[in-house]
């Protein structure tokens, strides 16, 4: 027996090597060849009945607009509410606004179960239907559940494999960190992102499959296959980066980031949904008077393989395709990414590091010159040979309808992205971001999607 006070290594130095070995194994893992994946996913779609229908707000079962506040709430008091948010971030024309926001205080679990087959780590992934996904069925983590789900507040069936993530001692934790959700649409929402390795025999449900990290990298090159929740968990994997140095030391980077958090005075206050300036509620939508940003809608859902087979709920629907991109430059032979210290009204702590560009172009189409978002036009106008990676990925399909972003790594130069970027931007290496993402609320969910692409080897910078 190992004594209770025995010392252990602070870091598992072998884990990055094991992850690299898994990332190197593409096309064919112990579970299924990647070439068979599309047929398998289509088979899972055919095996169940899926239907999503837009409905008026009066068609919502159990949901209503509360007297007085007009907030959209569930009669159980669980799940989430749609409320108003008033944000003030200082001076300037865009320093204050009001908008609808999702308030979901409970912390969910996004967990991927890992197991070694033939000396290679594999990851247990689920074909999961989400009502907001344009193609409905995508590859999700082993467990993707709110606390209401896995405590069965909905009185549905048990969440499969949940014990591996909530019962102590069921496996070896490889990653475990609280990460933010979309700060523009959620108010201070976090999920627990976990990777847990097991040595137990695992009974394979028909909606699940084992894939290597390299196979996941191949699937990340495709549009709308690997869902947002899987991407954010994969980004937390402690992968190795061969970087002899960086433009800024880790201490300098942390000091800059702390200064960014300190210099922004962000005041975000929940307010009644009713009467929000510039937002109009109709029979089926709550939308902005200028048709920008997003709208609140309602849907009725049928899903044969979910814990509850049918339900109704509100969803947020953005007005157009988003663009999420990192500018890439090499300094001293080391790739660097231009990170943006972004202020979003729903963040827990003022700013998080996001990609160089994180915008919906349609929302800014009316702007010209210096009023345009920094670096947006450089990304939109990038020559094809400068685009190192491009795919369209869905955002969180459980709360957002048809929310998609064009995700890119774009090779730039000093003329478009200078050595000394403007305030709020800093050149960082992928390894530095990977170190920061192991801590909560440093790297936002859009940047984590692009980190997942790197972690799985879908692109080499």
UniProtKB/TrEMBL annotation:
Identification of the protein by name: NDP-hexose 2,3-dehydratase family protein
Organism: Streptomyces hesseae
Gene3D superfamilies xref list: EvaA sugar 2,3-dehydratase subunit (3.90.79.40)
Residues covered by the dTDP-4-dehydro-6-deoxy-alpha-D-glucopyranose 2,3-dehydratase domain: 35-236, 251-454
């Amino acid at each position: 027996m190992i004594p209770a006070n025995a010392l252990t290594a602070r870091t598992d130095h072998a884990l990055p090597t094991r992850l690299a070995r898994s990332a190197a194994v593409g096309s064919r893992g112990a579970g299924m060849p990647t070439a068979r994946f599309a047929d398998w996913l289509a088979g899972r779609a055919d095996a169940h009945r899926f239907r999503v229908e837009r409905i008026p707000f009066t068609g919502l079962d159990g949901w209503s607009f509360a007297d007085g506040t007009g907030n959209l709430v569930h009669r159980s008091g669980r799940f989430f509410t749609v409320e108003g948010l008033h944000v003030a971030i200082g001076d300037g024309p865009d320093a204050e606004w009001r908008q609808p926001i999702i308030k979901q205080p409970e912390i969910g679990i996004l967990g991927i179960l890992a197991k070694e087959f033939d000396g290679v780590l594999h990851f247990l992934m689920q074909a999961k239907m989400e009502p907001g996904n344009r193609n409905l069925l995508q590859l999700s983590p082993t467990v993707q559940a709110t606390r209401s789900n896995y405590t069965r507040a909905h009185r549905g069936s048990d969440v499969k494999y949940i014990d591996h993530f909530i019962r102590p001692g069921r496996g070896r934790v490889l990653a475990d960190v609280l990460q933010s959700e979309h700060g523009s649409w959620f108010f201070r929402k976090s999920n627990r992102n976990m990777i847990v390795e097991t040595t137990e025999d695992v009974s394979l449900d028909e909606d699940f499959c084992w894939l290597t990290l390299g196979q996941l990298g191949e699937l990340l090159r495709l549009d709308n296959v690997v869902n947002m929740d899987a991407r954010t968990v994969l980004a937390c994997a402690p992968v190795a980066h061969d970087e002899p140095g960086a433009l800024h030391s880790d201490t300098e980077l942390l000091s800059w980031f702390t200064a960014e958090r300190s210099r922004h005075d962000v005041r975000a206050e929940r307010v009644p949904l009713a009467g929000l300036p510039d937002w109009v509620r109709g029979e089926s939508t709550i939308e902005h008077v200028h048709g920008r940003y997003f709208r609140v809608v309602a849907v009725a859902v049928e899903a044969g393989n979910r814990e509850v087979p049918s339900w109704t709920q509100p969803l947020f629907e953005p007005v157009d395709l988003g663009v999420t991109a990192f500018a890439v430059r090499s300094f001293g032979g080391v790739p660097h990414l231009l990170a943006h210290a972004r202020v979003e009204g729903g963040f827990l702590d003022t700013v998080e590091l996001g990609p160089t560009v994180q915008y919906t172009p349609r929302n800014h189409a009316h702007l010209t010159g210096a009023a345009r978002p920094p670096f947006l036009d450089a990304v939109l106008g990038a020559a094809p040979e400068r685009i190192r990676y491009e795919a369209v990925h869905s955002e969180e399909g459980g709360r957002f309808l048809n929310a998609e972003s064009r995700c890119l790594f774009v090779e730039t130069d000093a003329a478009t992205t200078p050595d000394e970027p403007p305030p709020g931007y800093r050149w960082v290496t992928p390894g530095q971001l990977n170190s920061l993402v192991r801590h909560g609320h440093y790297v936002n969910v859009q940047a984590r999607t692009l980190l997942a692409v790197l972690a799985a080897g879908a692109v080499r910078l």
